[in-house]
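hi! just following up on the protien thing from before. the input was this:
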Amino acid sequence: MKKPRILLAEDDHNLGSLLKEYLDLKGYDADLYPDGEKAYSGFIKEHYDLCLLDVMMPVKDGFTLASEIRLINKDIPLIFLTAKTLKEDVLEGFSIGADDYITKPFSMEELLFRIEAVLRRTLPGNEKDTYLFKLGKYDFDSQKQSLIIDKKVQKLTTKESELLKLLCNNKNKVLERNYALKTIWLDDSYFNARSMDVYITKLRKYLREDPSVEIINVHGKGFKIIC
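and the predicted 3d structure came back as:
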């Protein structure tokens, strides 16, 4: 199977080299460009499946580069790497057509989750988003927001369903705490983190009728559902 190709535009040489090495290790083919102009030239010459663009770059910034890329290819997914957290910058990125953004400093695992999520939606031949899951004796329908065991139906709130779906999409793997917070609550503030802990407790209660299904804490990282 052909490796997905990633255009990586990052002017910090150390970070860029680290990201390229990590992505290559995880089964991607990443090309690193040190500024927006070189990245644009590379984009014209090569085929890529996704672009990772630092916002603050010399010669040509990430927003300008993204706008020029969009003139050539309106469908290629774009993820911004930004040190900025201002709402205006985030909105500008999405107005250009960004698929996602990630704020520095970030973990490699969170970046990988975001890349995988975007590519699942955009790469040709990928299956449509799954909404039915089997968890031991439970059947989970994320569209109907229902958890069923022995014909007993537990209705879930929207956030309960979204959180359980994220856990299911990463079954037997770590769901990173910050990634879940930014995906569902849109930021990883202390109060949202406490809120997520409450939802995890509720999900454990709903799943307790099957001892083979368990949501465990992974210290310092996040949660993992095992079954």
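The chain has a mean pLDDT of 88.
Helices lie at 13-25, 36-45, 62-72, 87-96, 108-122, 158-169, 177-185, 190-206.
cheers
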